[in-house]
Amino acid sequence: MDEEKDPSQIISEALSRMNNFEKLNEALVILKSCGWISDYDDERVDQKIREQYGREDECASWSQLYEQIEEGAQEEFLGKVGSFYFGNIQ
């Protein structure tokens, strides 16, 4: 019998595979409305992303940084954002 995955692991995997900015934002809004993520999670992810991309003083959030990175790197970037929400670092 297959082992059941923890719901947060399933959500994390789905978020880490998202390659569309609007869909990722929509998923995060839904997760926030359900209580799966909070403002603290947003702040934590913003900080991790800024640290990873060396932009600690330049941007207020990951969504602002998304606009500044090269188009070819955006899909990988969104995957990292999704992974950071549930603690799974790619």
Describe it.
The chain is an all-alpha fold and 90 residues long. Helices cover 62% and strands 0% of the residues. The chain has one domain. The protein is built from five helices and no strands. The termini are far apart.
* Mean pLDDT figure: 82
In total, the number of strands is 0
Question: What overall form do the CA principal axes indicate?
Answer: globular
Structural class by SSE content: mainly alpha
Largest sheet: none
Tell me the domain tally: 1
Topology order in helix (H) and strand (E) letters: HHHHH
What would you report as the Rg, rounded to the nearest angstrom?
A: 13 Å
Q: How much β-strand is present in the residues?
A: under 5%
Low-confidence stretches: none
Share of helix among residues? 55-70%
State the helix count: 5
Distance between the termini: 28 Å
Write the layout of secondary structure elements.
Blueprint (H helix, E strand, L loop, with lengths): L6 H10 L4 H13 L5 H14 L9 H7 L5 H12 L5
Core attributes:
globular, 62% helix, mainly alpha, 90 residues
Short description:
With 90 residues, this protein is mostly helical.
